[in-house]
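Morning - zinc ion inputs below, output right after.
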Amino acid sequence: MIMNFELKTLDLHAAGTHKTDALIILVSAKDKPAKSVLAQLISDARKSRDLDESPAKFLSIWRPQGVTAPRVVLVSSGDGSARVLRQAVAAAVASLKAANPAHITVCLADATQNRLQAAAQAVADTSYVYTATKPSAKASDLKRVVLALPSVEQTKAAKYDFELARAQVAGVLLAKEWGNRPANHATPTHLADVAKGLGKKAGMQCQVLGPKDIEKLGMGSFTAVARGSVEPLRFIVLQYTGAAKTVAPTVLVGKGITFDTGGISLKPGPAMDEMKFDMCGAASVLGTFEALAHLKPTINVVGLIPTCENMPDGSALKPGDVITSMSGQTIEVLNTDAEGRLILCDALTYATRFKPSAVIDIATLTGACVISLGHVRSGLFSTSDDLAHALFTAGEAALDPCWRLPLDEEYAEGLKSNFADVANVAGRDGGAITAAKFLQRFTKDFPWAHLDIAGAAWKSGVAKGATGRPVGLLLHYLLGTQKVSVADKAK
Ligand code: BES
Ligand code: MN
Ligand code: ZN
């Protein structure tokens, strides 16, 4: 179902006669609305203590007198932060699930930065239904989402934030959808087809390399990982050109392991199905390009996606094997389950040819990162304080947060090998950091950052599913690199 977002001016008075299937009204104790049916309703509900001021608690009213909309959901916007607003909107939208409205209107009292986005993302996330391989699932009927602000001035000022919100929703949706698809429905070839589709959009270009080209490039490390699988590997090169060709691009590198069995160092059975999500880094790059196609910012971006399966087989890579990376460094593979870094290192070497201003890789790289940071913040590593700061700030703004971890040289001790230039693992301790130290060896030519999204990319348990992270973070970061921001242009 394609969801259309609209930005509209509606104060509480106008909202009373607005035609929609459901009105969600964010209320705050600070509001001093002019007299109207809805304002009266809110004030009465408060007086009778039926309207809780704590966020994510809502009051549903069916066919209130004098109101055109058949359903009204009052929900407190709490402290006014984007984070709480997201919770509040999500709770309100979830309460409408049974009614399955085609048209929702969300009335916000104001739209300070990021709140519009938080509201839009909450509506989209809450109404998302995975149907690709589940015909029995009832897709949401939601077609039209109106985000309303009380004054014309506010609507005008929010124009750019609204476009950004819309683009982010589209990008997150794409990342989520491809993250969720099972490995037999999301092969390297499928991901390459998604990229080719994006490549047809304005300002976009896409090139897909197959086994022969990849071998010719000397990507011995990437090739070695793919060897145990019958699915052919792909190397995807996406390019978005929104600025002069002379402007150095940002390169995004996404880990695209469409299924990670661990290879010969086979993973244990329980929850192994979740290793279909091991391409969420790749999906986030695809999602970010989708968003760029919507916004057309004045920047250049390259997306690189090495994608393959990690399978055990007669021809699979074995523990102890020594392989030669595109950089020329040899790697002793002590554990075939540390495959992400083996495909990323060749992509990082390839990135050099773009003379990038920065390279950011995004990967579901280590279980150790999940132990460190849980499912709230992605792990952030960087050789540049400026880049780290910009990514951190972007994560805060997008409600897609990350946290910086160190890269002290001492952490690389364990990667020493008697048989190759470097080993691919260094034991359990500090596993997220030692993985980053491995990658760092391939990033000498540019400022580099690494996002370990192992804990952020998907949810387990009953809510099992991809989150679409960190598309929001990446999009905010990229927009921040513009010389003249789109926000200024829009004015
Ligand atoms: N894709 C996994 C990382 C992962 C595991 C993410 C569990 C989320 C949940 C990665 O390829 C992997 O297997 N990493 C190993 C590295 C180890 C062998 C050094 C890990 O984390 O166990
Ligand atoms: Mn693995
Ligand atoms: Zn993996």
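Note: The longest helix spans residues 159-180.

O.
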